[in-house]
User: What shape does this take?
Amino acid sequence: MSNIGSYEKRIRNFSWDTAGEILNWKEGELLNIGDICSDRICRMGKGEKPALIWEGFGDRSSTYTFNDLKAYSNGFARFLTEQGIEPGDRVCIFMDKIPSLYFSFLGILKMGGIAQPLFSAFGDESLEVRLAGAGTKAILTTGKHVRKVRKIRDRLPQLKKVIVVEGNPDKLKEGEIFFDVEEAPRIDEFEVYRSGPETPSVLHFTSGTTGQPKGALHVHNSIWGQALTTSWVLDLRDDDVYWCTADPGWVTGTSYGIIGPWSLGATQCVLDSGFTSNRWYKFIQDNRITVWYSAPTAIRALMKDGDEVVGSYDLSSLRHLASVGEPLNPEAVIWSGEVFGGLRFHDTFWQTETGAMMISNYPGMEIKPGSMGKPFPGIEAAVLDLATHEPIEEPGKVGLIAFRPGWPSMFRQYWKKPDIYRSKFVGAAEDAMPEDLRQDRNLWYVSGDRASIDADGYFWFVGRDDDVINTGGHLVGPFEIESALVEHEAIAEAAAVGKPDEVNMEVVKAFVTLKPGYEPSDELELDIMNFIRKRLSPLAMPQEIEYRDKLPKTRSGKIVRRYLKAIEWGEDVGDLSTLSDE
Ligand code: 6R9
Assistant: This one.
């Protein structure tokens, strides 16, 4: 029997209080994610249970118990407090998936700070935009990545502390501090910050169509949603060994790679080394992994490498598979059933903003390959008519995915951008404040994705309603890429769109016009690609650059990405009457 049991029954009797029961949390108790995920598990007598089984490049590996998790997160909490970091301060975590990433995440929450994890492959410009945007006070990084911080530090007056947690202390520059938590004295007791449900916890930056990325702010109460979905969708139990392949630089890596599983006291594995099929299968085999949460791009890459590779490993420990981040194609669902002993990937749909799974396939419920499944109990979901924004009753008709506000893990604001937050809610009053919007059951939060609902209530993803590029499950904002492109000396104007890709679903393609005196060449193309890779990230790097004499524009001079994208996807380019003839 699965944790969820009957989906229909859960819907009928739903209350978020069930999350409190699962967490064994009593009214009036401290509500702090850092405490719930480590100290509380120890208080329950599970201190000696492995919390983190970690493997890195080469043969590096280590195992940490919940007692270790408690002590090392305390270590970070104490250290940050001593450094003058105060509750509410944003503390960035900028490192690979090393153990200190996990310890510091909980440590920041324990001292009342707001954890701001950023993907370690980000270049200095991606980093700068997000640190400046959040007014980040401290950054935790490693010898490997500190160079990028050095490049931008002068331009970030609010960034008071640069703390290096791994590497060679002799190589630090002036104004940088070294702190290796495993070498420092073990801190078994730390007085955890008395946070409440609405105390800010995590700030994740996410990309939109226009403007720079926005910080989606979450609160400690999010754990309600993360714990319950981890139990009912991922079906995690006490004896499971769980692997979430996501990097905590993205929301899946924190909601389901830290908070969800550890709130339930589960053992989880982390693999900090590049992707190869052999390495991944070996990791599952060696650690006897039972529950695996991954992404379509990875599944397609495994599929491409063939069934023979799968057959050379003992993967019999697996019992439940789930996926998130991009459309999971039916072939991948069917393939997984064939090669993993009848186990099919269960698609789940959610966003940085929703904080937890919203639409999913549940253990025991029939999977329709290609469908994202049904709304989580307690979540009211609909698709809204593209023009009227009224819920669509007709099965199969495409509209905007929308949710009634008020679920626990919902983002509470876009950092310092109340207008953009408001714009995500249909029916919001012009002067509505974020705290009114997030619990007004007369409104709809609109996700920015399109889908249809079939006669059985299953949701079918259609595509995004905007120009955001989803490459390998990672969102990249076209505006951010275009802004960086026009900083290149040769480029006059630029447009970035997603183009279809067999494995990554989409990759970035750039259309550019050159400044006088520059000629298109392979060399220039390579130079532009590297320019973006270094400044932004390998994800944002265009895989193709097309030189144009001019870019399509509206009469008011705005570049029309929609037109370029339609051409890439072989779609109807639509109404061109608003384009300029210039
Ligand atoms: C958790 C996460 C959110 C966007 C979302 C949508 C796409 C996520 C999906 C999916 C199709 C699924 N997306 N899950 N598309 N099927 N099962 O990925 O958060 O990085 O904010 O991305 O990803 O477009 O709006 P985030």
User: Anything to note?
Assistant: The chain is about 30% helix and 25% strand. The pocket of 6R9 is lined by residues 206, 250-252, 324-328, 347-352, 372, 447-449, 461, 464, 470, 475 (CB under 6 Å).
